[in-house]
Structure formats: structure tokens, C-alpha cells
Amino acid sequence: MTDPTIATQQADAGGAYVTALEHAEPTTGQPGRPGKPRSLWSDAWRDLRRRPLFIIAVVVILFLTVVALFPQWFTSVDPNHRDLTRSRQPPSGDAWFGYDVQGQDIYARVVYGTRWSLLVGVAGSLLTVLIGGTIGLLAGYFGGWLDGLLSRVGEVFSGLPFVLGGIVILNAFRSTGVDSALALVGMVVLALALLTWPISMRIIRSAAISAKQQDYVKAARALGASPWRIIFRHMLPNCLAPVLVYATILLGSFIAIEATLSFLGIGLRDPAVSWGVMISDSRNYIRVAPHLLLFPAGILTLTVLAFVMLGDAVRDALDPKLR
Fold first, then answer.
1. 3-state class (DSSP) for residue 188
2. What SS3 class is residue 88?
3. Which domains does the chain have, with CATH numbers?
4. Contact (Cβ atoms closer than 8 angstroms) between residue 170 and residue 187
5. Which family is annotated (predicted)?
6. CA 83: distance to chain centroid?
7. What pTM was computed for the model?
8. Distance CA 153, CA 122 (A)
9. What are the pLDDT digits (tens) for 34-64?
10. 273 φ, ψ to 5°?
11. Residue 269 neighbours by CB under 8 Å, 6+ apart
């Protein structure tokens, strides 16, 4: 499982991302004629298009996205249909991945599980970046006692053991008797965001402190722009690069973490179908029916690897130190 804290080292050059905008080399439409200066994003896109790993990762992620949005295109079998006479049958022409303990088609459950697993990853990453990014921008721009207070609060949350914190939060939610699939996903997403936002806060805080010293921020302040206009109109666009790298890697990490929580019995559960739920259901039958674990775990590994590859490629393209 990918530890979400690895992004601290992989995206800690927040100030470098911002200052790279000022050092972009000009391009020329024709020899001897100056053109518009290339931005950080255009340079990054030119670099990404030449990276095979980036292309492979994007193809895999786009395919998984299509599967999540339109699972009926890939299977006509009801993932919750049970036939105990087919319990633990191996892969065959009728069921490519075989059947699980309850006689459910594993291939159909893998296809429909893509939606819930990706939903946890995407929603968890967005909420984490939204919470941590907002707090980091405020702390980096205003500084002083506010920065100290928010940083200390972030350190408190960072000190919580992830698995223990997840067990406490999710068990507290489970006692409310929530049973719908979307509510279960919301519980897991909220728990993930509460335990991981300090990392994104530190990343964007570092970028905000660097951006605050740039001339365009000083000029906006001299012209009488309000702090909120400076933060969201001028600083935020130039602080997105490092947190984008972190969010990309975090998305894959959250998919793996959801599987871990489900394996421990505190994550998603029926009626939600996810790869983590399938792996949890197969843990007692690995020796007698290894296909119950092999296929959902293989798809999970491929997905996490694709997002990690994408994050690494984006990091290398956006970080001027690596050019």
C-alpha cells in the first residue's frame, strides 16, 4: 500500500514550482523572432507527452474511468446475484474470473467495484486538498499567530496513528446504523480526509509563503487589493502545481487504504461493492480458492500503480529542479 506521506518528499519543492513561472524561456514562432514566453504548464505538457510511463498511466486511468461510469458496457451480469450451487467455482467461459463464496460473478463485481473504489479515491483526494489547501493558504499568507495556531492543529492530526484513527472514526459512524452505499462511502471519505489533510496543508503553505514574496503579490497589495482577492486570484493559481502532484499520488493511496480498511472490517461493506470488500470476503479461502483474491487484488494493484506513475510523471514535469 502506498503511504500518503511519501508525497511530502515528492512535492516538497513548493516554492520552486512558483518561481519557475518567472524563469520560463521564451519560445519563437520563427527563427530570430521572439514569441510568447512558455508557462510552467505548457512546458510540463510538452515534457509529459514524451514520457511513455505517463501515456501508459493515462490510458489505464481513462479505461478505468469508462468502466466506472458505464459498467453495463462490460458486463450484463448483476454483481449481487447469488447462486450457491456455483460457490467458489474457478474461472470458466461463463465467468471469466470465477465465482465467490456466495456464488456471485467475480468479474461482474470487479467491474462494478471500480465505481466505488474510484469514488472513494477521487472524493477523498478532493476533500483532503480542499481542507488542507484552504488552511495552508490562510496560514501561509497571514502568518503570525494564525500560522502558528493552524500549524499546531495540523501537527496534532498528523500525530494520530492512521489505522487507529480510522478505526475510531469509522466505528463511531457505524454505531449510527448507516446502511446505504453512498453514506458508507461518505463515512470513509470523511475519515480519510480528517486524517490526511495536514500533509496537503504543509505543501500549499510552503508554496504560499514563497508566492507571497513575489512581485505580483506585492503589486496587488500596493494597488489596494483585498487579502481574499490576492489569495484566491493571484496566489492560488500559482500554488496549485505542488498540491496537484500530491493529490494525484494520494488518489491511488486512498484506493489502497480503502481496501485495507475494508479488510479490517471497518471500511465499505454490502451493499457497496468495492475491491476492498472483495478482498476482505476472500481472506478465509485463499488456499482453497485463490482466484477470489487474485483478480480484485490484481486490479487494485494495477490501479494504484497507474496513479503513482501518473503522479511521478507530473512531479518530474512540474519540478524545475529535475529538468
1. helix
2. coil
3. 6-23+61-322 (1.10.3720.10)
4. yes
5. Belongs to the binding-protein-dependent transport system permease family.
6. 36
7. 0.77
8. 25
9. 455 566 566 667 767 777 888 888 899 999 9
10. -110, 115
11. 184, 262, 277
